Automatic annotation (TrEMBL):
PANTHER family found in the cross-reference section: NITROGENASE IRON-MOLYBDENUM COFACTOR BIOSYNTHESIS PROTEIN NIFE (PTHR42956:SF1)
Protein encoded by which gene: nifE
Span of domain Nitrogenase/oxidoreductase component: 42-438
Identification of the protein by name: Nitrogenase iron-molybdenum cofactor biosynthesis protein NifE
SUPFAM superfamilies: Helical backbone' metal receptor (SSF53807)
Family: Belongs to the NifD/NifK/NifE/NifN family.
Domain of life assignment: Bacteria
């Protein structure tokens, strides 16, 4: 096989851990190299994945129809009530709209949709073409808000102006305009907001249940199964818990600066991190010892039920190799620990949006020989999977074809999935899915490649 090489200009974003005591220095938080076919999404998509689960808000994409089609129903975010978020609206700009401007069309679309669906708020997403033609969506949003009496929030997410991470920031800016505009009556001292949890397959309900069993009041989840009124009163909570740090740390910092609400970074994936997420909150409310006692009882009960079931899979999975490529590096930490619980080895750990601290943490967690990569592409991922002889690739929908073409198992740990992987029950679902994929008899019909020459 012809040797697969890394593109010139990409070498500084790839690191292989070895015994050499050289200083660890990986390039990250940069725009993608032209021609590398990055697995990242655009700024607009980043904002959509964060705001999409707000279920009682109107979401309208100001731009060509393709942008709305690309991001329709892109999260497996479920709602316990309204499902307005699952309808994808677009101003569907055509050539003449681009020439003469789309502000009138946006105003007309907003007015008709608000009158028909009676949403609690409306998010207006600005796409690439809007950034080029210069439509003043702020002015349109302000006018419609005054006319209709609901918050109409511009989301400045022109796809060309940065990375997916910039889309997260645009979403946080929009959410912050809602925070602090509602009443805080009924919010107690032991209360939290759950940030960066998007209720994929009902995961927010699992996490919320854990905290409520501990005696903690959950004021809002942002944005899984989200409600506009809950977001508006979220400034009354005592603590913010941030799960997806890449998407929501900015909002947590803004709320800390404006309202004095501290925040904790947590993960809900795997036994160790899920337990720590509960204990960290209990320690924050240390003046109420009953919360810590409830946390200990909950963890003890859940782990005692879960651990024996995991042992059924350990003997089969021990020694198998996994490659991880996910959106945020913080998730990779949890996945490494989760795989270690069944004695699987991680040979590749990468992310789309990691920072220096994230990759330094991955370096400390990973074994010798593990490849650490930022903003990878299909060719690189194929190269590392073959060279490291991985048995499994964990990623999202864009990584699935890579795994199957190379004849290895795949586990979807991105936002399209329909099975909850968070919490203690999610850990069992995850390991079961890993087992079913890696140990499937189908792979005997697709002999593994022997690496690259």
């Amino acid at each position: 096989m012809e040797k697969i090489t890394i593109l010139e200009g990409r070498q500084s974003q790839v690191y292989e851990k070895n015994n050499t005591p050289a200083e660890f220095d990986i390039t990250c938080e940069t725009t993608s190299l032209s021609g590398s076919v990055s697995q990242r999404a655009c700024v607009f998509c980043g904002s959509r994945v964060v705001l999409y689960p707000v279920a009682d808000a109107l979401h309208i994409v100001h731009g060509p129809i393709g942008c709305a089609a690309y991001t329709w129903d892109i999260r497996g975010a479920v709602s316990s009530g309204p499902e307005l978020h699952r309808l994808s609206f677009s101003t569907d700009l055509k050539e003449m709209d681009v020439i003469y401007g789309g502000e009138k069309k946006l105003h007309k679309s907003l007015t008709e949709l608000i009158e028909q669906y009676q949403p609690k708020a409306a998010f207006i997403y600005s796409t690439c073409i809007i950034g080029i033609i210069g439509d003043d969506i702020d002015a349109v949003c302000k006018k419609v808000s005054q006319e209709q009496g609901i918050p109409v929030l511009p989301v400045h997410s022109e796809g060309f102006k940065g990375t997916k991470k910039d889309g997260y920031k645009a979403a946080c800016d929009a959410l912050m305009k809602l925070v602090g505009t509602g009443p805080t009556e009924g919010i107690g001292k032991y209360s939290i907001n759950i940030l960066g949890e998007f209720n994929l397959a009902g995961e927010a309900w699992i996490i919320k249940s854990y905290y409520e069993q501990m005696g903690i009041q959950v004021v809002s989840t942002m944005t899984g199964d989200g409600r506009v009124d809950d977001i508006r009163r979220s400034h009354g909570a005592s603590l913010n818990i941030v799960q997806c740090s890449g998407s929501m740390v900015k909002l947590a910092k803004m709320m800390e600066e404006k309202y004095g609400i501290p925040y904790l970074r947590v993960s809900y994936f795997g036994i160790e991190d899920m337990s720590k997420a509960l204990y960290d909150v209990a320690r924050h409310f240390s003046d109420n010892q009953a919360i810590m006692e409830a946390a200990k009882e909950l963890v003890s009960r859940e782990v005692s039920e879960l651990y024996p079931q995991l042992q059924k899979y350990r003997s089969a999975l021990a020694g198998k190799k996994a490659a991880i490529y996910v959106g945020g590096a913080f998730k990779a930490f949890s996945l490494i620990k989760a795989l270690a619980s069944v004695d699987m080895k991680v040979v590749l750990a990468g992310s789309q949006t990691g920072n220096k601290d994230d990759y330094e943490g991955l370096k400390e967690m990973c074994d010798e020989g593990t490849v650490i990569v930022d903003d990878s592409n299909p060719v690189e991922l194929s190269k590392f999977v073959l060279e490291k002889e991985a048995d499994l690739l964990i990623g999202g929908v864009k990584e699935r074809p890579i795994a199957y073409k190379l004849g290895i198992g795949f586990c979807d740990h991105n936002h399209e999935r329909k099975i909850p992987l968070a919490g203690f029950e999610g850990m069992l679902n995850f390991i079961r899915e890993v087992y079913n994929s890696v140990m499937s008899p189908v792979w005997k019909f697709a002999p593994r490649k022997g690496g690259v020459s």
